[in-house]
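Its record is quoted verbatim for completeness.
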Amino acid sequence: MNLIDHLESQVDWNKVFGVVDSVYSDPGFSSKGDNFARSTAIEKAVDKFSNLVRVDQTGYDFIYDQDGTFIRIEQKMQQDLFYKGGHSPKLGGKTSIHDTNPFKVKSFLSETKTVEDFKEIKTFDYMMVIDLTARRVVLVEDEMARSLYRKGGDGAVMELKLGQYYQCDIGEVNAILPPTILSEGINQAIESFLDF
C-alpha cells in the first residue's frame, strides 16, 4: 500500500488527535520546556496508531515499508499552521486557507550548515506536515520541500502554498483522548525513579 493510501485509510487519526488535544490541554505542561514531551508523545502516537515506525534519526522521524521499499518521512507539526483566510494588512492583503504560516524546518543552533547546505542534502523522501489545530495532514515531496527552505531566525523555515503539497483526505476527526494525563504519569515516573 502506498504512503498516501495508508495515511488516508489506515491511521487512527481520532486517537492521534486525541493525544494532541490531551497534551495541549494538560495543566501540568505550562512552559516551552514541555514542548519536547508534547512532540515526543505525538510522534509516538503516530507510530502506535499507524504502520509508520518512529526512528527519530537525523533528518527524518519515521520509516514506512511501502511494498518492500522503505520511505523516510520527516514530520513537522504546529498549531494554527494554515491561515484561516480573510484579510490581513500585516501580511499585505488577503490570506488563503491553502497557505501556511512560515514554520521552522532546520535549526542552526548546533550546526555549522547554512540554508544552502540544507537545500543540497537529501535526508527524507516526504515531509509530513500536520496542522494540530485544523487537523490537516499534508505531504510534501523532498525536492519541493528543500527548494522552499529560506533563512528565518536561528534556522531554516518554509511556508507552503496550494500546489506544493498533497493534502491527505483523513475524513472527519472525532478525537479520542487517552484516559490519563501525561504530565501526571511523567511526575509519577520521576518520583519512582528518585525513590532509592
The domain at 3-193 is CATH 3.40.600 (ECO RV Endonuclease; Chain A). Residues 28 and 187 are 9 Å apart (CA to CA). The chain is about 30% helix and 30% strand. Residues 35-48 form the longest helix (14 residues).
